[in-house]
């Protein structure tokens, strides 16, 4: 389900809040709300998305580190997470990526899923 109108020409800013605590999340949301001409896409791992809602932002969710670690036998987390990351970038084509909290590579490391696919 696409969460933006096809003619939405606002500059897209992908903001990663991977592993971010509530205080950091709240600061980032307050900052982004000051820029209504930007289309903010948040990438989060926290299930509590309530504070992100209500101002036209898009929310993309990755599984929490604890979930990935709890179910290591569920397939190739590395392949799944990397594919999900690629889909998010392809889908939204952000002009800017702001990393708050962990970087995607740090997230993969924390998940135990930072394994490069064979060539």
Helices and strands, with pairings:
Elements lengths: L10 E8 L3 H12 L4 E7 L13 E4 L3 H6 L6 H16 L3 E6 L2 H8 L8
Parallel strand pairs: 1-2, 1-4, 2-3
Strand line-up in the sheet with most strands: 3-2-1-4
Radius of gyration: 15 Å
- Class per helix and strand makeup: alpha/beta
Strand count, sense and barrel status of the largest sheet are: 4 strands, parallel
| CATH architecture descriptor | 3-Layer(aba) Sandwich
The helical percent reads 25-40%
Unreliable runs: none
The counted number of beta strands is 4
| Quaternary class | single chain
What is the name of the CATH class?
A: Alpha Beta
Termini separation comes to 32 Å
How much of the polypeptide forms β-strand, as a percent range?
Answer: 15-25%
| Topology pattern, helix = H, strand = E | EHEEHHEH
The CATH topology: Rossmann fold
* Count of spatially separate domains: 1
Give the CATH superfamily: Glycogen Phosphorylase B
Q: Number of DSSP helices?
A: 4
Describe this structure in words.
This protein has 119 residues and is of the alpha/beta class. The chain has one domain (11-107): Glycogen Phosphorylase B (Rossmann fold), CATH 3.40.50.2000. It is 35% helix and 21% strand. The chain has helices at 22-33, 65-70, 77-92, 104-111; strands at 11-18, 38-44, 58-61, 96-101. It has a four-stranded parallel sheet, with helices on both faces.
